[in-house]
Amino acid sequence: MITLDRLVNVLGGYGVRLCGHPETRSTWLRSVAIPDATDHHVAGDVLLAVGTSSLAEAVQWAAAAKATAVLVRPARTGTGTGDESESGSGEDVEREAAAIAGRYGVAVLLADPAVSWSQLAGVVYGLVLESRETASGRGPTDLFALADNLADVIGGAVTIEDRHSRVLAYSRSQQAGDPARLETILGRRVPERLRELFRQQEVFARLAATDEPVFVPADAGHGLTGRMAVAVRAGRELLGSVWVSCADPLTGAHRRALADGARIVALHLLRSRASADLERQVESDLVIRLLEGSADAATVISRLGLAPQAIRVIAVRAYTPDDRHAALLLALEQATTGFGWSRPGRSALLGDTLYTILPAERAEAARQWIAALHSELPARVRVTAGIGAPAEAADLAAGRQEADECLALHESAEPGAVPPAYDESWDDILLRRLRAAARTGRAPARGPVSALLRHDTRHGTRFVATLRAWLESQGDLTLAAERLAVHPNTVRNRLRKMGELGPLDLDDTRQRLAMTIVLAALEDEPRR
């Protein structure tokens, strides 16, 4: 069961557009129907208008079936839905669909003609009838069975991969298996050295351009026997690929079996991805409510399946030197893959930042989560992150701000620095805030510290460094001199000269505190 709004949002990823009757978007959908020439009384909340010759006929069928929405797949050349389509532009089709939808009170979903009815039906049935299925649910389980079947038919070891060369399933069969396949399965992704080899041989480019199987010759240096690979595609979109270990190119029935298998894999991946997308949307909505300060935070936490305990907010950014978006989407996909209850955290994407709420008392647990996420991304991706302090559910909006500030701290740190946590780095965060305030002109333009700064700039003296060392040493001349690597008498003489420049009451505790804050707000000056 799913609302029409959710169905439209997920199907939008496959080029489906909603035309007309927007007031039905909140309607719950519980059943799917397909026209049947032998049964004129089909009924369902969503009608798949297979075999209709026009938009008008499709909507009339939907109205007769008492459907809330009708999915129509126009032919490539115009507004008709069958082979003999009428001429017209895409805008004409949408205008006609909206007009007909208004007359009959049925929402019209226009599908991309490049996506087949079998793929559309797989997604719709999966969402409406099996909307709780996720990326770790039945889809990948069936993929392993499919890989085994293909291996039995073709006679070679089979691996099914997504478009990023990550392993989704593989066959039990080790016929024609090789070290490269074993390394791929153990690492759950094709090793970078093999990916580079395939790029040099333009294997990925050929898979992106054709539906025909591509042969990859053996390479003993890479532990690779021959491979036959075929693209898994939904319409124009490349979803992944199927690889078979074989010494020579497949021919005849084996080649046809590989091509047919790729089409079946596409159905599995579409249904699995649609269900996962739905779960991500629900999860994201709930997480965002918490980050923005939900009044019923305890209820939201319960709906997310998290225990009422200390929670940290983690803010993550991921990017490569030439792309600041694709890597972040990969990070989101990785962070939200699998059943919700099988994952420690819950995530949402806001702007250019991935936020995850993670039950964790210790900051190290959050750092381990970040490290695990980073390890699943391509080697070129740089990940920066910040960790909020442990918080109750009602305080996660403040936790988000803490995570954001720690993220900014990490982005300005040296490469390889560990992600900071607010409860461990609150002093650095405070100084960063003070420095930001000073840069906007909020620090006093006059006063003893400003006067000393001007004198140092004009005369090359070390008065500011001396004042800082004296304050940090709590007035101990010997300790201050050690910090500055000078004699205590030098410190004493500098303090006397500093007092001659203007009011400098070092005996006043409030003035000492104020000077300490001003010095902390400034960019670090040399200590000697």
Characterise the protein shown here.
The longest helix has 40 residues, at 252-291. The radius of gyration is 32 Å and the shape is elongated. The strands form 4 sheets. Strands 2-7-6-5-4 form a 5-stranded mixed beta sheet, sandwiched between helices. A 5-stranded antiparallel beta sheet has the order 9-8-12-11-10. A 4-stranded antiparallel beta sheet has the order 14-15-13-16. Strand 6 (69-72), helix 3 (90-104) and strand 7 form a beta-alpha-beta unit. The protein has helices spanning 4-11, 55-64, 90-104, 117-129, 138-154, 179-187, 192-200, 203-209, 252-291, 297-303, 326-335, 363-375, 396-411, 422-439, 448-459, 463-472, 477-484, 488-501, 509-521; strands at 2-3, 17-19, 28-29, 32-33, 46-48, 69-72, 107-110, 158-162, 167-170, 214-216, 227-234, 237-245, 311-319, 346-350, 353-359, 382-387. 47% of the residues lie in helices and 14% in strands. It is α+β, with helices and mostly antiparallel strands.
Name the descriptors:
five-stranded mixed sheet, about 525 residues, disordered C terminus, elongated
Compute the number of helices: 19
Question: Alpha-carbon distance between the termini?
Answer: 70 Å
Structural class: alpha+beta
What's the overall geometry? elongated
Biggest sheet, in brief?
A: 5 strands, mixed
**Nearest-integer average pLDDT:** 83
